[in-house]
Amino acid sequence: MIGLLVRRNLLFILMSLEVMVNAAGLAFVVAGAGHGQADGQAMFIFILAIAAAEVAVGLALVLLLYHRYRTLDVDVASQLRG
Amino acid sequence: MLKLLWLIPALPCAGFLTLAFFGPRLSRRAVALIGPGVVLASAVVSWSVAMSFFLAPPPGGAFVQELWTWMDVAGFHPKMALYLDPLSLVMMLVVTSVGFLIHWYSTEFMAEDEGYSRFFAYMNLFVASMLVLLLGDNLLLLYLGWEGVGLCSYLLIGFWYTDPANGRAARKAFYVTRVGDTAMSLGLFLLFTQLGTLQIQDLMREAHDQWGTGSKLATAAGLLLLGGACGKSAQLPLQVWLPDAMAGPTPTSALIHAATMVTAGVYLIARTHVIFEVSPTAQFAVAAVGAATLLIAGFSAMTQWDIKKSLAFSTISQIGYMFLALGVGAWSAAIFHFMTHAFFKALLFLGAGIVIEACHHEHSMFKMGGLRKELPVTFWTFAIAGCSLAGLPLVTAGFYSKGLIIWNAYASAGGSMVLWLAAVFGALLTSIYTFRMIFLTFFGEPKAHVVKRPGAAMKIPVMILAFFAAVAGFVETPGFLGHAHVFSNFMQKALPEAVERRGLGMSELGSEAVVMLAFLAGLAIAYFFFLKKPALQESVTEPPVGQAVHRFWFSDWGMDWLYDKLFVQPLWWFARINKRDFIDSFYAAVAAVTRALWVVLRSTQTGRLRWYAAVIVAGTILFVALALVAKP
Amino acid sequence: MILVWLIVVLFSGGVLAWIAARWNEAAARWISLAAVTADFLLSLELWRKYSAGAHFLPNGPWLVDFNAEWISIPLAGVNIHLHLAMDGLSLLMVALTCLLGIMSVLTSWREISQRVGFFHLNLMAILGAIVGVFLAVDLFLFYFAWELMLVPMYFLIAVWGHERRIYAAVKFFIFTQACGLLMLVSILALVFAHHQATGVYTFEYADLLNTPLSRGAAFLMMLGMFLGFAVKLPMFPLHPWLPDAHTEAPTAGSLILAGLLLKTGAYGLLRFVLPLFPEASRDFAPAAMTLAVAGIVYGAVMAFAQTDLKRLVAYTSVSHLGFVLLGIYARNDWALEGALVSMIAHGVSTGSLFMLVGQLQERTHTREMDRLGGLWATIPRLSGIAMFFAMGSMGLPGLGDFVGEFLVLMGTYYAGHFGLTVAASVGVLFSTLYALKFIQRAYHGPNTHQWKIQDLAPREALIFAPMIVVLLWLGVYPQPVIRTFQPAMQAIQQFSNAPGEAPPR
Question: How much is the ipTM here?
């Protein structure tokens, strides 16, 4: 999470996201094991699928951003400023 | 013939419409025919109507001609109807006849003016409105004419509109008279609400039946009507507009601001006399206003250098006499003085017009002088009118009408010694300022070169008026002088006779003798001060006290200054500081707050991804913490 | 069906004009002139037919009635009807709309040269919506027409206006929209209250009339609706949008704003607020009348303070509509009918003053008094006309405004509000100030700027002649007008007098 907040490179932000998603999945599995139920593992399968989709979209956006700004610095892409 | 009554106001109205729409395209000759022509036609019709009124008086002593119903709302149905009785008849004859003479005079007086047709259009509209005022059968129709003459007065005072000073005088006249009109309209509401009609005769009957003597409502109604009358007739405290109104062309001053319109207040009070009979308080107020005005204006008239302004103050003062007569219950005496005043004051103004033209538009009497030989006709007619104004005994109309009022101020039911003294002192003042005017203008060393002499169209009306100014008084003479009562007998059908008090300490002859003395004293004073020893003037006005008094009187007792400070300046001040409407600033403040919020909130939208992420994290932590804290 | 035609003719005229303007701009003008004239003739024909005023339809005080299903949601039991009806009051207002509509087309004949087609589309849309407002008796339909007026008016100001047009248009829109939403809330609240009482959802005017309401609820609903109408009127502290909107709008826009849009507010008060919430209105009357008198005096003084001719005339509207509000809430015959005569007369006289100022601006390109003056010498005819309407505006007897104001004041006095009558009379006095200032600063005085401009053109004479005739006619013989709306006003009064209360006479 710290990586997500302090890194400026979009790739690292994405990686941090992946780590966070996996951490949440791990928490599910552990909790499922702890309670002796299979729901936690089923949820991890969902999370894997969503993470894959998210990476696909995220990388596509990263590519587009790189095409546009020739950089992966997120602070440059701040056109939504009010 | 009576059926032709509607033509009398309709003819000048038609003249107005013709001149208003086609005036600029007509030749001057055509305008000079149409303008006075319609008034002449109207005068002819009124005389023939008057004849048939005399010969075959309609039943009830009054003739009503209903034209159409103006409006009809829930029991309020004023009609467009004309009402002819001796009171409106006399007023109507004077208005159309004097009106015609002044129109005739104007054809020459205004001959070189650019707005020739405009002038006659306004004058015709004035005559039409005045006749509606006089003939109106209900107070609402009277009010229509009332405002109509006010409008014409405004238009004619500001006739030479390129000079802003004229415009200022015109607007002042309109504003001040409208102050009175506001009071009058409130009076109308009160009368209608209480008595359920505005038809004058019904109103008088109802007022008499429903209100006991001394009723508070009657007093309120009377005072409100008096307010209207004071505005239009330039009485205290609303007299300030009339001296300024002299900015208009001189025939206008003669017709509107001397002979007819300014006496509308007298007519109004005479018309609604029952209300004043029911309320002695209101009637006394009328007398008090009249007496105070005639003195104040008399003093002011003595100090003016402008011949027209002097005449204007004289008009105010003479109308004060009429109010005094109304106030003491001498109704027909007031109308009698109205009639003679219309003749001699119109004549004085017309004469002044000739003199001013002759001296190259010079208004100051001190720069005239010795015109007696240069303008003999003008001099003689002016002198006759002046003598009539001052009340030259026995041979002038003014003597009879003013003497009657002064006698009534003492002898009639509402009269008293104080009022009589005020009236006599007023007569002295009148005599002084009149002869001051005559001596300064026509006697002494010639000071101005005569550049223009009057032609026939100016001389003949003046001579006709001079004739009436002299002889019109013989219809009503005191007991010791033939005891003619033609006028009051005729008036009796419309207005009640004056009731004499019992146990009087003075006879009519005595009163008249004192008036004669006042006249002679005034003549003598004027002679010494302005003809024999002009140096005497300075000995009076040189010392500081004399100077201050002179300035005070000259400025109409400082009332203009007072009103300026009390009403005009604050209004201007408010208008100036609030031009941008302070209410709007409230809404502008709402808009400004919105804008400020926008500035604050927009700064949170940085567009930086990491900032958003951080805020999300912070928010989540905050809410989780809150949930944890709130749980136990 | 004729009522639908009244609206359809205007809208289709606008669309046709819009299409035609692609090829020929003059055609657009002629088409919209034809449409609005046709409407005017229709309304006159209706007037002639029903001038006796005795042809009441069985379902209310209506002369003509049109009712069709519009939106129906059977499951919820909601039925919204396309219900148009006309009584004497709406008849006169529609006739006035069409008359001023003709004038607005004529007066923009030369003034508008850009996007002519779109201009006429907007103009016709406003007129159509106004006619809709005057005819709708289904509250949903009414609100629909009410909001429909706003958008084209916004465009009229924002596209063809003068220097600060966007500011003025936005201000106009926000003011009226904000208070309009309050009105919507009130309408919905009333409908739900009616549903609670009877189990029927309806927006029908006649059904909602006798909805039983608790005192507090009725007062709140009344207040919401009142604000919606009062801002249009405009009532005293809600007026600041008006001077800006009037000043910046093109002449036709000012004419319609002053002559018609303001009247929709007064009409709404008469048609809806008084009859729907009789007790609440009675409780509120003293406050409304006080605000009305404040508006009369304040408007007059503000008019006097202005140096921009259009702003001056705009503030006179605040003053005059104060009389209308005063009359509506004095609630007796004289005051109500006076208020109506005032509405019509104000539409004519103030509308004409706006057109006069518009023509001056067309010729001299200024509205500032300091840049004008002494115009009488060069344009005597236009000046004479200006004098006429200025006198009308200051309530000279013999012209329409006087009749209205006199009746209103008399009714107010009769209703026992002596102080308010005096204050309002002082307002009349102040009207002299601004009317004479208008004349003095523009037409009298020295011609310091050496203006030499063209006097009255025939097209302009065609505009002013009917206006002069109407104003004079209202002044000396208003009886036909009064007779036409009298039954409608009596019906309104009947509803607004709650049972047990003696009718204020």
Answer: 0.90
